[in-house]
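Weekly modeling sync, notes
Attendees: S.R. (lead), two postdocs, one rotation student

Agenda item 3: backlog of single-chain predictions. S.R. asked that every request posted to the team notebook include the full sequence so nobody has to chase files. The rotation student volunteered to paste the first one in as an example of the format we agreed on. Action items at the bottom.

Example entry:
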Amino acid sequence: MKFITKNLAYFAVAATALTLVFRFALSTLLANECHFYFIPAVLYSLSMFAAGWYFGYKDARELPIYDVGFRFHLATYVSYFVATGAWFLLGLNADVEKGEKNLITALIWGFLLAIHFAFYLLSRKKAIDGLKKDDLFD
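Predicted structure, as returned to the notebook:
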């Protein structure tokens, strides 16, 4: 089974770019002590959902892989923490942002990703060579 597809790679690039825009907006608002820092978070979540929906839909149409969205979830996790880690390592964060909160976020999100991986493995048992059993003989 092909794990990394063209659409998944495009999604990972989009997720990284959106994360960098989110980090910039959040750091700028926090540095200026603006209390509307929830706006970038809402816009980020909506844009990530839209990107995942678009590329996930294209991926499902072009390649009939039977999974529960784990590949896109993993790509989101990796893209977010690579971009966020680079943001903090380069010192681009506002002085009020704390890197420890990102570690806590990574741990909680990683635990949820592990649960999603378990569901992914269970769904693979119900498939033949990565394809949904019901769709093999249409």
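Discussion: group reviewed the output briefly. Residues 6-128 form one domain.
Action items: rotation student to repeat for the remaining queue; S.R. to check formatting next week.
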